[in-house]
Specification:
Length: about 350
Amino acid sequence: MAILTLNLDPLDVLFFRDGQAFTSGGRAGSGYPTPQTLGGALRSHLMEAAGCDFHQFGDDIRSGLTPRDAARRQSPALEAALSMRLRGPWLKYDGTIMLPTPVTVLRVRGGSTLVRLDPSGQPVPGWRDSGEQGLAPLWPRTRARTEAAGGYLALEAMADFLAGRTPPTDGLVPANTLFAIEHRTGIAVDSTAGTAAEGMIYGIGFLRLRPGVRFVVEIETDAGVPPLGDFLLRWGGEGRHVACSVADTPVQWPGGPALDGSLAVLTTPAFLSGGWHGDDWHPLAVACGEGQAISGWDLARRAPKPTRFAVPAGAVFYFASGRDSVLERTSLSAGDDVANGFGCFLKGGWTYA
């Protein structure tokens, strides 16, 4: 098995659509790119490099073949391009990976001090336990009023969280330090008259990374190393490009030992069969925030992908000792979602609050 780490440096602003309708007079804003958006772009690049007949490939998919079988009909190189598994994308700032702050890291209101939530070690008045699979309450180690910390944690600060400690304040980076949404106004053009279409004024927000910020993705394959060097990749809408290059060193991901129990922090969104848990695993406690609607366009089938709701990155799942076998996996998602980069997580430990 080979793992490549790619750096992606935008050459301009980027645009990643959300699931909202885009109409005249409306405003569409770019969000953070989802794993499937990058996976589709990278696979399309590798398929083109392998000499894919895209018309034949689409016909085979629509006839009922799986993408892997359709690729195998053309060439081993094309099959290898579709066999790769992705992890990411993540932001990298000043040489350090930046991960969405776990939702159980809070800030004392009106200050900068950080606190963390962990399962309560004492009964909580009013908390109703529903039995064997009941959830434990999460509790802070302070009586001060708190609010969501937000932003991103540097990888070194995430290592503190995984070790059961509260991350240092200077390890928290606000989102606006890493990127901004740049708003622009545009008009639709009447293709017949060659003039502005009446009433078709719209607003659009592009994702602009700050200086020194790039994206990083890992590619894992057991079918031979993909033929990647320095190349340009079209990524997202509006035909924008990023410059891709293979990193000199792989990412050194931190982890933490199980303490009173183990935990998992999502670093990419995850589709979970149980909504907030899996079919074969159930956490002791969980903090997952609002679901993230993810859809897209299936080029091979010429149809929209169904909208699904993912648990967002930064969600934290707590497991009791002896009930954490799911953490031996590489992803909390399943099936094709794993290969597309969903459900990536880091493993750590927690102690009772």
